[in-house]
Amino acid sequence: MPTQLLVLIGLLSAILTLTGCVRAPVTDRLQVSVIPEKIMLPLGRNTYQDMLSGARLVTNGDDVGTLRRVGKRIARVTGEPGYGWRFSLVDDRDTLNAWCLPGGKIAFYTGILPVLQNEAGMAFVMGHEVGHATAHHGAERMSQQLAVLGGLGALYLYMDRKSELTDQQKNLMMGALGVGAQVGFILPFSRKHEKEADIIGLMYMSRAGYPPEESVAVWERMQAQSGGGRVPAFLSTHPSHEQRRANLREWMAQARKRHARNPLSEDTQKTLWR
Ligand SMILES: [Zn+2]
């Protein structure tokens, strides 16, 4: 056991020395010890294949056509030409979800379409998910987990030398510390990521020519869905609706300015899904 932990600590320090500081797009937040794209991009590619291997994909028709069009427009404004963008629509009406893996590997489930309702709604959720990827949230989360594991590993080595503790006591302490580290460190940060993804999503959709007001409308429809005791998967880790609306309102004026510079000529708020 201690050997594995030593390896982990070694890996952690290697990553910390290998990576420098980067900034998140739009919010410009400084990020330290992010795992480099060289590692994250192939990881995103492989995970995408795994996650979609058993899925039933929609390969033709208007719905997937709209998804690809929105995706390409959002991709263009991110300034990430190195990403191998992929847009998949999963035929699953029971799943109210969408996600984007590192490197722009995106999946939407048909269950989320009625909540998006129109192309602009899709653009906001697309922007939000892409925002998680371009702001390196996956990499940041992984480096945090490694840091937590590294810290726990060091503590384990220390406790291992304290022979007056029984193995059971040591295990109990490790368990409690692991849970504490998760609740106190990883979860609050995740909410910060959600807020940042909302802001980035709002700016991406506006720059791509979609009316930013639709972002708030999407959340209202999402909230209506969660009323009947059915919490959409998409919301399970997301901030409260009130908080979310407040965040979006705070950034709306800026978003409107970006939208005004380059609005799409077609009506993107026409109902496509209900
Ligand atoms: Zn999110």
Give me a quick take on this structure.
The chain is an alpha+beta fold and 274 residues long. The chain contains 9 helices and 6 strands. The strands form 2 sheets. It has a 4-stranded mixed sheet with strand order 3-4-6-5, with helices on both faces. A two-stranded antiparallel ribbon has the order 1-2.
Question: What share of residues are in beta strands?
Answer: 5-15%
Cα-to-Cα separation, first versus last residue: 54 Å
Q: How many strand segments?
A: 6
Can you tell me the residue ranges where pLDDT is under 50 for at least 5 consecutive residues?
none
Shape: elongated
**Assembly form of the protein:** single chain
What is bound: which ligands? zinc ion
Over the alpha carbons, how many angstroms does the gyration radius reach? Answer: 21 Å
Order of helices and strands: HEEHEHEEEHHHHHH
- Main β sheet profile: 4 strands, mixed
The helix fraction, in percent, is 55-70%
- State the strand order across the main sheet: 3-4-6-5
The structural class is alpha+beta
Number of domains: 1
Mean pLDDT: 84
- Counting H and I runs of at least 4 residues, what is the number of helices? 9
Structure description:
The protein is an alpha+beta fold. The chain has one domain (2-261). It has helices at 2-18, 37-52, 62-78, 113-116, 119-134, 137-161, 167-207, 214-226, 241-261, and strands spanning 21-23, 30-32, 57-58, 86-90, 98-101, 105-109. A four-stranded mixed beta sheet has the order 3-4-6-5, with helices on both faces. A two-stranded antiparallel ribbon has the order 1-2. Strand 5 (98-101) and strand 6 form a beta hairpin. Helix 6 packs antiparallel against helix 7 (167-207). The radius of gyration is 21 Å and the shape is elongated. The chain starts with a helix and ends in a 13-residue tail after the last helix. The mean pLDDT is 84. Zinc ion binds at residues 128, 132, 194, 197, 238.
